[in-house]
Amino acid sequence: GDSVTQMEGPVTLSEEAFLTINCTYTATGYPSLFWYVQYPGEGLQLLLKATKADDKGSNKGFEATYRKETTSFHLEKGSVQVSDSAVYFCAFRLTQGGSEKLVFGKGMKLTVNP
Amino acid sequence: EPEVTQTPSHQVTQMGQEVILRCVPISNHLYFYWYRQILGQKVEFLVSFYNNEISEKSEIFDDQFSVERPDGSNFTLKIRSTKLEDSAMYFCASGSGGKTQYFGPGTRLLVL
Prior knowledge:
The complex is a heterodimer.
Chain A: E1 3-6, E2 11-14, E3 19-21, E4 23-26, E5 31-38, E6 44-50, E7 56-59, E8 62-65, E9 75-77, E10 86-94, E11 102-104, E12 108-113
Parallel strand pairs in A: 2-12
Antiparallel strand pairs in A: 1-4, 3-9, 5-6, 5-10, 7-8, 8-9, 10-11, 10-12
Chain B: E1 5-7, E2 10-13, E3 19-24, E4 31-37, E5 43-50, E6 53-57, E7 65-68, E8 75-79, E9 88-95, E10 102-103, E11 107-111
Parallel strand pairs in B: 2-11
Antiparallel strand pairs in B: 1-3, 3-8, 4-5, 4-9, 5-6, 7-8, 9-10, 9-11
């Protein structure tokens, strides 16, 4: 069935370290891809998205490229900050068949230390 | 910037009791959703709602659950007779028909 597989954390990094969070998906159709972030005590916020193959989503120094050939949407940031400490969720939504639901990964908790 | 709001932020209830979780979606959005996240598990889709009716629901959304848009601004999720396994964070989301859904901060429900 449709699913998202994410790197499992938790992960602790030092400030200015490079971050990669792997995400792969299994979908019966052609999905739009998303990264959501949940800061402590807050709800899910859209971080970035990509809607077709080879699109790159970017926001707040984070990037992810839609790779259809590897069914992946890995999140990267070149230099993390303490304020990036949060839980990161990869998700997709199918664009055919009328379904609107988002399918989420388990989330990965990132802690960035000064 | 407009945002989705949810009340209450936390709710504790006894097993078998009814609970109503409330959401105020972004004002010009027409599509509404509920998701839940059991502690340590994935965020799971429950239901989507458009044009005053359910457009899609998951197998989790059984007869114990219902949704309603009682007026022009609120969107509610009712659990008729809560079970221990209903304990979770419940997220409301809304969208304007594009691909992006905007989430509220969640209601943490604890069933004792």
